[in-house]
Structures are given as C-alpha cells and as structure tokens.
Amino acid sequence: VKKNFIVDQAIYVNIKNNCYDLHNDYAFIACNFAPSKSLIYLTWLRLDRKWVKASYPNKIVIVFHDILFFYISNALMTEKVTTIQEIGYKDPDDKDLDWLNDERNFTANSQIIFRFENDEFIRVGAGIAEAKEGDDF
Amino acid sequence: MNKAAYFFNEYINPVTPIVEFITGKSHESGFTAPKSRMQSAKEAALNIVPAGEEGRAALRLGEKVTAKLDESAVVSTEKSAENISKDLNGGKARVTLRSEKEMLRVDLTGKPHNGIETSHTVVAKRNYGAPNQPTYNTSQKLIEIHKTTAKELRMIRNYFKNNK
Q1: Confidence grade of residue B7 (pLDDT, cut at 50, 70, 90)
Q2: Residues B74-92 as b or e (16 or more Cβ within 10 Å = b)
Q3: pLDDT of residue B11
Q4: How far away is chain B from the Cα of A98, in angstroms, using its nearest Cα?
Q5: What does the alpha-carbon distance between residue A63 and residue A67 come to, in Å, rounded to a whole number?
Q6: Bridge partners, A126 (sequence order)
Q7: ipTM reported for the complex, 2 dp
Q8: Is B23 on the interface with A (CB under 8 A)?
C-alpha cells in the first residue's frame, strides 16, 4: 500500500505535517464501501470535549483505493464501537493480532489494522491509502 | 544544633512538621531547602495524637485531613500530567516509553480507558517471539491499565529532560 500519512505512537495520524489523535480527539463514525469503484472510506468525527482543539478539522477520512483485502469484525457493525485503540500493520499472511508492527516495520505489502475497544478491528489491504482532513466530505 | 536536639526535632517533636508547614522549608536542611506544605501537613496530622478519647478524636480528624490531602494529591497528579502535555509534549496527550520488558503508553489527557480517567498508563509486555524487535503485545486482552502514578510522571519528566 502506498500512503500519504504516517502513524505515530499507534494513535496519531500525520498528514502533511499535521498530527491528529484519532484515539482521544476523534470518534470513528463510518465505514463506507464502494465495491464497483474498489474504494473504502473510514471516517472519524472530531469530538466536542474540553481537551480537543476547536481548530482541528471536523473530519478525518482515510480512503483506500484498489482493495486487495478487507475484514471488519462483527461488533463494529452491531454495537456502538467508536474509539480506536491502536493503528498498526501486519504482513498479509500473519493472523496473530496479539501484536502489531509499527511504522518502522511498515512495507509496501503491509495491511493496515485499526484496533478498537474489545479487540474489534478493521483490516485493509489496498493499493493506495489516502488520508484527508477537512470539514466537508 | 547538637545531635540530641536534632534527633528530637527530626523524629519526635510533633511541632516540627507544623513549623515545616508554616515555613515551607524542611527541618532536615536546617530550614533552608523547600519542602511540600502538603507533606508537612500530613505529617503534622499524623503526629499530633494525644492519648484517650481526645486522642481518638484527633486521630479521626487526622484521617479526615489525610483523606482530604490524598484527594488533593490526585488533583495535583492530574494537573501535573496536564502540564507535562502542555509544556513538554507539544500539547499531545500520549507519551510512549519502552524498556527491555515492557512498553508504557501514557495518555496524559483525553478519554478514559476501560473506565479509568486520564492520566492513565497502558502496560504492554514484550513479545520476544515476534519477528521484528522490540515488539510488545498490545491486544486489549493482554494489556494492563492503571491510573498513572507520580513515579511514572517523574519518569516522563526525566525522559524529556534527557532527550532535549
């Protein structure tokens, strides 16, 4: 996967030198799949909490193009799971989710893991991962 | 001051913590070095315990004072964590510290984790079998979470001091 962002300390997404804390400052709100275009959109919405800067963009969206692999665990579809605990990477054939690779061990073949509460997760392998920041999507 | 007088004031004299509380200086340093007034007040509350019913009442009062001071200590730890985030970590919530055996992910501010308010510490044990080292088990079922301790906050301050 080619990507335009770097993950720092498992929760920060750095986009063009802007750093966003998806664990503390944003809530995961949507996973949209467009099979005919081979696109997946993961969307986070800025929280209205005392520690969150109002100047941060309202939304962070990560768009995956050319999907090679996609898995979403059940509770993400049936329960209110909104807090990401960790973002990391895995080789495509590695199913051991006790541990994740961090940015140091990211490779072009890596799949991206988004780990939520209670070890619920989304796993995506794709050609391109593009993070966007903004107020209107 | 002779040795006997120093020993009496340091270990026996119940008034010493009160003087320390008023001056904000420690007896140990000859009242030149600063000492936390909260610590002095705690020691004073625990020291002044006369015998009999009055003593028990004083002890209960002391317990109340100590409990109140402990609450202050918690507030102080939270404030300290906020200050580290603001002054040393560029306003970011998280600091990650790695050692040979474990990794600490400390969120100084932000959301609670499993009902534990910030600042809290997530402890992830080392996974020696993983191919890329150092690697730590960060699955939610394998981590431990606790309220960040004063000792951990000191470690974080030292980390920033040594990595300036």
Answers
A1: very low
A2: eeebbebbbebbeebbeeb
A3: 44
A4: 5
A5: 10
A6: A67
A7: 0.93
A8: no
